[in-house]
Amino acid sequence: MERLFLLCSGLLVTTVTSQHNVCSRPQLSGNIEMSGIQRFSSPGEELALACKEGYTPLSGPRKIVCTINGVWTSTKLKCIPKQCPHPELITNGELFYEDTVYQSAINYTCHEGYMMTGESSAVCQANGTWSSPAPECIPIPCGLAPVPLYGMVIYDKVIRGNTVNYGLKATYICNPPYALFGNPVAECTASGTWTKTPECQVVTCPPPESIERGYMSNNEKREFFYRERVKYGCESPYVLEGNVEVVCQENGKWSEKPSCKAPCSVNLQRARILHNGKKIWIENFQPNRVLHLEIVSVYCMNEARKCGYAVPTQCIDGTLNIPKCFEEPSGVEYTLKPNSLPSEIDQC
Ligand SMILES: *[C@@H]1O[C@H](CO)[C@@H](O)[C@H](O)[C@H]1NC(C)=O
Ligand SMILES: *[C@@H]1O[C@H](CO)[C@@H](O)[C@H](O)[C@H]1NC(C)=O
């Protein structure tokens, strides 16, 4: 009576029982299998080994023999799992896998806005092929963008047929006098629908307001439509400041209207001034008028260097400030010694 356990290269365990010279059925590991179903073998009998389904023999003898001692010969047979080909990347999607051997799996997903045609996963089969080909990710289509009444749609790209792809944008325009309310840009979403379509609504402005000292190109007392324009002008010698034209805006209000600015007079009795590059005695400055934003210069005296210099001043809506350095001469000085005035002596 003896009991013996033999470990052969970790792959094959043979148990020998009390029956002398008889090998009992070997216990196999490492994905090895054998043919036949008999429980005992006599010395000299051979047993063919093979790799299990999905595994390939790498090396080692494929047979074991029952020896005279009732022990199977050892085997160094190695079975390795079959390899499936490496999967290729898919466009507009991703794949996840850890290995490409028998029984490993690949999971596929599509990017947002794309839907899958085909299987979302594949398994490496016993014959080294994947259970299904890679799926395709195709864009989720939207129908054409809805067109609002009195408006139109301009797509970002030329479209064919009556579907468009995820991510396409459309810009809306309303035909004046209709104005657009809402987001002017809509987009084909991942769920195959368009974002909110804006509306085209009629917009009117009240009659434009008149301006003081000015006139308008249109005095009709009616409602004006969105984008209608009216021009303004000023009576001479008033000068228009701001935009010549106002427009009825989307919010039902006119854009900012201009105003008419007053001219100035040069309030000096005795002086010579510089206006538009010309030196003029004040009594000859007729009419005594400087338009809004126009510049005139008066002459001041540099006492230290005994020279004269021109100082500019600007007319701002009826106000012309005379520079502080200006000193008006006395009547006697002005009449009898005009050559000594700052405007007449050497300039600094
Ligand atoms: C594939 O998906 C299955 C089921 O959702 C999951 O159990 C498995 O871990 C995934 N495999 C990989 C590699 O992502
Ligand atoms: C591989 O095995 C699968 C499943 O048994 C079978 O459908 C397929 O035709 C086999 N492919 C090849 C190339 O043998």
UniProtKB/TrEMBL annotation:
UniProt entry keywords in alphabetical sequence: Disulfide bond, Glycoprotein, Heparin-binding, Repeat, Secreted, Signal, Sushi
One Pfam match: Sushi
Localisation: Secreted
GO cellular component, one term: extracellular region
InterPro entries, per the entry: Compl-Cell_Adhes-Reg, Sushi/SCR/CCP_sf, Sushi_2, Sushi_SCR_CCP_dom
Gene3D superfamilies named among the record's database cross-references: Complement Module, domain 1
Disulfide bond positions: C23-C66, C110-C137, C205-C248
Signal peptide: 1-18
Domain Sushi, chain residue ranges per copy: 21-81, 82-139, 140-202, 203-262
GO MF entry, a single one: heparin binding
Cited function: Binds to various kinds of negatively charged substances such as heparin, phospholipids, and dextran sulfate. May prevent activation of the intrinsic blood coagulation cascade by binding to phospholipids on the surface of damaged cells.
Listed name of the protein: Beta-2-glycoprotein 1
Species this chain originates from: Poecilia formosa (Amazon molly)
